[in-house]
Amino acid sequence: MHLPVIPNTRTKAPVLPNPSGIRKQYQDEFEGLDHNEATTQGEWWDMRNLTSEYEPWLATRPERRKYRKLTEPWGLFEWEGLCWVDGDGFYFNGERKGTVARSRKTFAAIGDYIIIMPDKAYYNTYSGEFGSLEATWSGTVTFTDGLYVGETAKANTIQSSGVDWSRYFRDGDAVTIEGCTKHPANNKTPIIREVSGDKLYFYENTFELDDGVEEDTESTVPYTEPGQITIKRTMPDILYMCENENRLWGCDKRTIYSSKLGDPFNWNCFEGVGTDSYAVDTGSEGSFTGCYSYLGVPMFFKETILYKVYGTMPSNYEVTPTNSISGVMEGSSTSMAVAGSTLFYLSPHGIMAYSGATPRTVNHPFGTDRYKLAAAGSTGGKYYISMEGPNGYLLFAYDVEKGMWHIEDDKHMLNFAYWDKNLYMLQDDGQIWITGNIVDPPADSTPEGPFDWYAESGDIVGDYARSAGAPPNKKHLTKFQMRTVLYEGSWVELWVRYDSNGDWQLVDRKEFEKDKPKRSHYMSVKPIRVDHFRVKLIGHGQCKIQSISHDFGVGSELRSMPGPQ
């Protein structure tokens, strides 16, 4: 599947003749970012707080809402509700549910469970239980005979008087036994078949017992290990994880893991059945940089390799690598998000769009700027990504249908979460924002309020001259016209800079007029003979620009200087 190709039906801004020799260049279709030296007409070299929502108009983004402010933000996630980590607290729908370490978090969910890494903690959204995916017990135990499915069974039981094993383990847990010295063969990882009071039952003949004293040399008797025994349920030190087909998948730097089917607590069940856990060492160069479930397949990225795991159970899993691709950049695992059925992420070569074949770049509008340390989210049709560039962090929005990038602002977002039809963003200062076209905002959220914005054009050098059949001679400007839609309390200024020299010069400022919110503005300029110029629109509050035009006269190819020549 490939990104939809939107036909380019736009026409270049027309040049209108005038009997006096003055011409008018008119622009009424505006696009997005084009941070390249040869900026395309109608696109913008730089901008802040703009949007594609009202295309073909140039427009400010919708106003955000403030949801709440965290004191010490470590992560944001959604699963049956909105959750976050603030300080050492894990919160679900605003209520503290458990204690975690003060560190950046990775989240995943399976069934009723929200998984929190690297703490190896979980929260059950149905029962409200918070706890650890791992469990450890140490003490003195006796290995003995017992029961299996209600029948007497030999050498299958661990007993420790007075211990309530249900506080630590469950039926079906794979537990690692360590510390056996009398019978070292009992140091193993068997699977608990039943937890009953102070007894753990396993398969028959799971353990070695002492030899019997009867004439029958095969008889055995219970024995107690002389030292302290440790019994534990463990999980790998997973860096990145996702859910796929009722399994929790994850990876460390080089190994891919899967939990037992439907059971995020167990990663060491290897019985040769379809519900087993799974692990495979890839052996390739480099560390994993992220994982994601896409098109029903768990995918694991390195910076230059993509591994896909095909199959339905461990016995037929097939790990297929694709080499020499632009994978996920180190430090940008949370840049992966699906918008318009396409998976987007930050690679070492820029933003990639992956639809199931070969990833392709959608990075051209960024020019030569390079970015890192990205986090992203999606509203379905738009991909939002916050990443660090040459001058700090920027928040971008990509409209998949229209193929346009816009810069929103310079806020550093740590995580995104799409919950209850809205996109939430966690800023590095702890503020949780709601963004986009907000639907039914929470009652306790508050409006962002008016904000500043700007749009800077690329060099305007005389595309109109080519259309008029003349060389790109010097030209002199006489006036601008701009048609705006302003809202109460808003204003817009038009600035111009000539021949890449000197400071920006204010042409005019227009403010909201109650009786004329939508109107055309005439703005004259002192005629200046130039080779090229740039326009910058600076504003405050909600605004839409429907069109901009400028009048000019064409002169010779000689020097630029004040006044018509």
Topology, element by element:
Layout: E1 15-16, E2 23-27, E3 44-48, E4 50-51, E5 58-60, E6 65-69, E7 73-78, E8 82-86, E9 89-92, E10 95-99, E11 106-110, E12 113-117, E13 121-124, E14 130-132, E15 135-139, E16 142-148, E17 151-159, E18 176-178, E19 194-196, E20 199-201, E21 210-211, E22 220-221, E23 223-224, E24 229-233, E25 240-244, E26 247-251, E27 255-258, E28 278-281, E29 290-294, E30 297-301, E31 305-310, E32 318-323, E33 337-339, E34 342-347, E35 350-354, E36 360-361, E37 372-378, E38 382-389, E39 392-399, E40 404-409, E41 413-419, E42 422-427, E43 431-435, E44 446-447, E45 452-457, H1 463-467, E46 475-486, E47 491-498, E48 505-511, E49 518-524, E50 529-530, E51 533-540, E52 543-554
Question: How would you describe this structure to a colleague?
Answer:
By secondary structure, the protein is an all-beta fold. Among the domains are: 15-62 and 454-554, Galactose-binding domain-like (Jelly Rolls); 135-233. Helices cover 1% and strands 47% of the residues. It contains one helix and 52 strands. Strands 1, 2, 4, 5, 46, 49, 50 and 52 form an eight-stranded antiparallel sheet that branches. Strands 3-45-51-47-48 form a five-stranded antiparallel sheet, with no helix packed on it. Strands 41-42-43-6-44 form a five-stranded antiparallel sheet, with no helix packed on it. The longest helix has 5 residues, at 463-467. It starts with 14 loop residues before the first strand and ends in an 11-residue tail after the last strand.
